[in-house]
Fold:
Amino acid sequence: MQRVLVAGDTANDLLAGTRSGAGHVIGVLGGAHGRERLEAAPHTAIAENLGEVLAHTRTA
Structure:
């Protein structure tokens, strides 16, 4: 599961990704939840937008 990446815009998305055992769990800003709420959830990174998520896939 280390090669699985989950990206979401809610704390529940990040929790689900973590519980599933995904190696990378990225909160994406600009959606349902703001930075503070996403940072309070389990995650490996916070991205400003989907472009940053795509950049992360190239380095993961």
The mean pLDDT is 90. The longest strand covers residues 24-28. DSSP finds three helices and three strands in the chain. The CA atoms of residues 16 and 42 lie 9 Å apart.
